[in-house]
Amino acid sequence: MATCHVCSRELKEGTTTLTFHEDGLVISVSHIPALVCECGESQIKAPVAEYVSDLVDEILAFERAQREKAARWIPVREIALGLAG
Question: Model-level pTM greater than 0.85?
Answer without folding.
Answer: no
